[in-house]
Write a structure and sequence with these properties.
Rossmann fold; binds cytidine-5'-diphosphate; alpha/beta; disordered N terminus
Length: 242
């Protein structure tokens, strides 16, 4: 079946948000989904869940075959928690265990690009992302949504920001979460983000790249509200080609 058919045979409506690490994808995607009443799929969380399972089983010593062998026995679920707050929160479940914070650890962040570059991991998760989106109105964020998962998405956005700003955002996030990570310097975080971006952009299978018909937004000096407004404006126009 062609990609076009995946989009046209049902009522699916897709907003694709891609970009490098800490460019603001998940914050924007969640808020846009809330405003529009759409489902939100954090595809990075799915790659992180497979990475967590890999690390738990094999440590840092694993082959592509090892990871591929885990896939048939791996169950990933993104559950929407209706906690009566203004914003939706999504909880991540790996084989029925809640791993929402475990998948954000430094260990997982350091290994996730390597696991995500394995073609069988991508095939499996892309199939799952398409299945989850079937007959739904969805905002997905990731690295390959507008290029590979849904190349005919109704709205495509590619977020970027300077490496210094992205490292600052990540540092603030870590400081808010845990005292154990207070020591991470901006330089250290910037180096880790740059390494992950390089790995994600240069892999053979579905590299991180801006789709030619995506709106490219530099969020370095933008507020989150501005980012959300820009995506909502695009969605309201139903623009496909910029
Ligand atoms: O939140 P952050 O930008 O740090 O990362 P994420 O969105 O949670 O994604 C973690 C990693 O998963 C990325 O660095 C990619 O290696 C991989 N990923 C991917 O390959 N394809 C996607 N659609 C989403 C994430
Ligand atoms: O999903 P991605 O890794 O691209 O980024 P994110 O998790 O949405 O954003 C990383 C952090 O930057 C979050 O804590 C956001 O609240 C923050 N952020 C910001 O301070 N200003 C922006 N314009 C966008 C994001």
């Amino acid at each position: 079946m062609s990609e076009k058919h995946i989009q046209c045979e049902d009522e699916t409506l897709i907003i694709a948000i891609d970009g490098p690490a800490a460019s603001g994808k998940s914050t924007t995607a969640r808020l846009v989904a809330d405003k529009l009443g759409y489902m939100y799929i954090d595809t990075g969380a799915m790659y992180r869940a497979v990475t967590l399972k890999t690390i738990r089983r094999f440590g840092a010593q694993y082959t592509e075959e090892d990871v591929a062998a885990l896939l048939p026995e791996t169950h990933i679920e993104l559950r929407r928690e209706d906690n009566h707050s203004a914003h939706t929160s999504i909880k991540v479940f790996l084989d029925d265990e809640e791993v929402t914070s475990d998948i954000r650890s430094q260990e997982v962040s350091a290994e996730v690009s390597r696991v995500s570059a394995i073609p069988r991991v991508r095939e499996r998760l892309v199939a799952l992302q398409r299945e989850m989106s079937k007959n739904e109105r969805v905002v997905l964020d990731g690295r390959d949504i507008g290029t590979v998962v849904f190349p005919h998405a109704d709205v495509k956005v590619y977020l970027v920001a300077s490496i210094e700003e992205r490292a600052r955002r990540r540092q603030k996030e870590l400081q808010d979460q845990s005292a154990a990570t207070l020591n991470a310097s901006i330089d250290d975080l910037a180096a880790r983000l740059a390494t992950r971006d390089r790995f994600d952009s240069t892999r053979d299978h579905s590299p991180l790249s801006c789709a030619p018909d995506a709106l490219r937004l530099d969020t370095t000096n933008m507020t989150i509200e501005c980012q959300v407004e820009a995506v909502l404006e695009l969605a309201s126009q139903g623009i496909k080609k910029i």
